């Protein structure tokens, strides 16, 4: 999903992007200078895309502080028949998740 999100950001015209994930291994692999094996070709694809004319920063967040993102991902999974779901405004269902994320990240 990281690659797909980056492609959407690139083709939408965003040129400064911060990617946060709760997968520490993904962040480590992407930020590593070592060449990924062919089994991890998606890592090489992400790196190649990030080498375009834009700034992409990767970071890890704790799963407990990522409720809003998880909630939005579940909304997208419920819309499985489309390739991309774009929210112009936050869905009402995530308001409490955002609040919970803010509280847990400040602890």
UniProtKB/TrEMBL annotation:
GO molecular function annotations of the record: nucleic acid binding; RNA-DNA hybrid ribonuclease activity
Domain RNase H type-1: from-to ranges: 2-74
Classification via Pfam families: RVT_3
PANTHER family reported for this sequence: OS05G0353850 PROTEIN, POLYNUCLEOTIDYL TRANSFERASE, RIBONUCLEASE H-LIKE SUPERFAMILY PROTEIN
Identification of the protein by name: RNase H type-1 domain-containing protein
Organism listed in the record: Gossypium stocksii
């Amino acid at each position: 999903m990281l690659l797909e999100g980056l492609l959407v950001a690139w083709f939408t015209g965003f040129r400064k992007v911060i990617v946060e994930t709760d997968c520490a291994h993904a962040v480590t692999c992407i930020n590593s200078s070592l060449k990924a094996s062919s089994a991890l070709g998606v890592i090489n694809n992400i790196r190649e895309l990030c080498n375009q004319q834009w700034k992409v920063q990767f970071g890890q967040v704790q799963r407990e502080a990522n409720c809003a993102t998880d909630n939005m991902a579940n909304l997208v999974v419920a819309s499985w028949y489309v390739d991309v779901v774009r929210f112009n405004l936050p869905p009402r269902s995530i308001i409490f998740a955002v609040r919970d994320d803010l509280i847990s990240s400040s602890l």
